[in-house]
Amino acid sequence: MPVPRRFDRQPPERDPTRINERIRVAEVRLIDEDGSQIGVIKTDDALSMARDRDLDLVEVAPDSRPPVARLLDYSKYKYEQEQKAKAARKHQQQVNVREIKLRPKIADHDYGTKRGHVERFLRNQDKVKVTIMFRGREQAHPERGRALLDRLYEDVADLATIEQHPQQEGRNMHMMLAPSRGNVSRAREDRNRSDPAGSPAAGSTDGAEAAAAES
């Protein structure tokens, strides 16, 4: 006849929190389940109180002297913490940084294509790093690269704000664009209209599109 498994309140091994018999110090500063301070008592007495109330003794401040422990239902506490973390992740938006590379003498057609990529990235709430690549004698005219960056910003000013102004680094010049507040608000409203339940927005542009934009 199989031996029935003993109910064990111990957390998983990967959980470093010390509870119940894992708390091996002689005394703890105890907090009641309603948050009131009980004071410094022997750990054995605190464990007895936890058992009497069908609760766990959980170490919440192990670096204090003596450590601070609290009476609570550890399983319920962990579940609530996981739900809070899940809700926070749901409302947290991941920010991607895209890069667009331009040449100082870019043709109008190519410029229009690159500008379209920048606009799409900004509407997707991505930041855009715009890089001007100078070659040979082009390095003697950095003002042309700056003028091109200024032109690009003016063309997307309704979607973007300058997070980092143009800076020269070796043969390249960089500018960082971030979605403007109005753009962020419009995108949030669009997501709410298209997904009333508040599910996360669709994933970012796939690698093939990003590679095409950066080429």
Any overview of this molecule?
37% of the residues lie in helices and 25% in strands. The protein is elongated, with a radius of gyration of 29 Å. A 4-stranded mixed beta sheet has the order 2-1-4-3. The protein has a 4-stranded mixed beta sheet with strand order 5-6-8-7. Strand 7 and strand 8 form a beta hairpin. It has 6 helices and 8 strands. The chain folds into 2 domains: 22-73, Ubiquitin-like (UB roll), CATH 3.10.20; 97-214, Translation initiation factor 3 (IF-3), C-terminal domain (Translation Initiation Factor IF3, 2-Layer Sandwich). It is α/β, with parallel strands linked by helices.
Shape: elongated
Give the helix tally: 6
Give the uncertain stretches in residue-range form: 196-212
**How many structural units, i.e. domains?**
2
Provide key terms for this protein.
215 residues, alpha/beta, Ubiquitin-like (UB roll), Translation Initiation Factor IF3, four-stranded mixed beta sheet, 6 helices
Give the helix/strand layout.
Elements: E1 27-31, E2 37-42, H1 43-52, E3 56-61, E4 68-72, H2 74-91, E5 97-102, H3 108-123, E6 127-133, H4 142-155, E7 160-169, E8 172-179, H5 181-194, H6 207-214
Parallel strand pairs: 1-4, 5-6
Antiparallel strand pairs: 1-2, 3-4, 6-8, 7-8
